[in-house]
Amino acid sequence: MKDKIKALLKEKNAILLAHNYQPPEIMDVADLCGDSLELSITAAQTDADIIVFCGVHFMAETAYILSPEKTVLLPRTDAGCPMADMITPEALTKRLAELPPMPVVTYVNSSAAVKALSTICCTSANVIKVANSLDAPEMLMTPDRNLALYAASKTSKKIHLWDGYCPFHNALTPDDVHLARKAHPDAVFMAHPECPPNILELADVIQSTSGMIRYASESKAKSFIVGTEIGILYPLKKAMPDKQFFPASLKMECRDMKKITLADIVNSLETMTGKVTVPEDIRIAALQAVQRMVALA
Ligand code: 13P
Ligand code: SF4
Asked: Residues 63-75: pLDDT tens digits?
């Protein structure tokens, strides 16, 4: 199946991008694995004709927003993000009418229509840089309240919250962390900024998924407790076979991130199904917010 995918990618001048939470067999066949920011940057720069996105819907939409001349394939179009579904353009418009005028910073984990109403996008890797880049003392940050609280703790800006969250990161409890620390007393605890503040308080390191891979490879430490979706354990162990990585909790498993199979990728490339597009008026409005973010990288 992997050889078939490689042959199809070559034949069609396609590139396969995979998020760090994807299943191991997909990461093994991908041209690039990365965090949301790295994947967005690559999607903007590649000269491939087709981008096969192994991740969830908002990631494929972001690739299309940046590269509408390319065909963007999401091999399972039902792979979504529950956090992205916690905000709609209608709800955002209503909230904005209640607030004084201010910029809107929107996490890439959102629909194109929500990005279209936003000033700038951010990811977990650049949220502080993005907040500080705005010439405004306050802003609304959507949809992840945990990411927004993290940014608020690291900047002097006043950040208004949206009540969204990732169900898998939000489910991690201090008890889970204490248990993991007890089992692995020498391990460094790395947490993702989608975790709630009472978890980030306990963390030794707060990083995006690729930030965790970089941090662990540069660290002298030999063992790590990992507070993010458990798919990240595979690239961590693959990059550092001499180090140990333990999940902070096995309940941090995102079902949507595990939907795509190798067979889905073959089918999508052979039949050109799973195309993701965005209506042009929404794309143009969303592009500004995404491009402002990419320009800061
Ligand atoms: P990053 O890989 O950008 O840290 O994103 C985490 C995430 O939850 C993506 O859905
Ligand atoms: Fe969305 Fe959380 Fe799944 Fe990422 S891990 S795609 S934020 S539900």
From this structure: 999 999 999 999 9
* CA 297 to ligand 2 center in whole angstroms: 22
pLDDT digits (tens, 9 = 90+) for 237-248: 999 999 999 999
E-strand spans in 108-155? 120-122, 138-142
- Candidates 147, 192, 215, 256: which one to mutate for ligand 1, based on the most atoms within 8 Å of Cβ? 192
pTM of the predicted protein model: 0.94
Neighbour order of strands in the sheet with 188-191: 205-206, 188-191, 223-227, 244-247
Q: How far apart are CA 249 and CA 172, in angstroms?
A: 7
Whether 170 contacts 146, CB under 8 Å: yes
Nearest alpha carbon to residue 256 among 41, 98, 109: 109
For the domain with range 84-165, which CATH number is right: 3.40.50.10800, 3.20.20.140, 3.30.450.20, 3.50.50.60?
3.40.50.10800
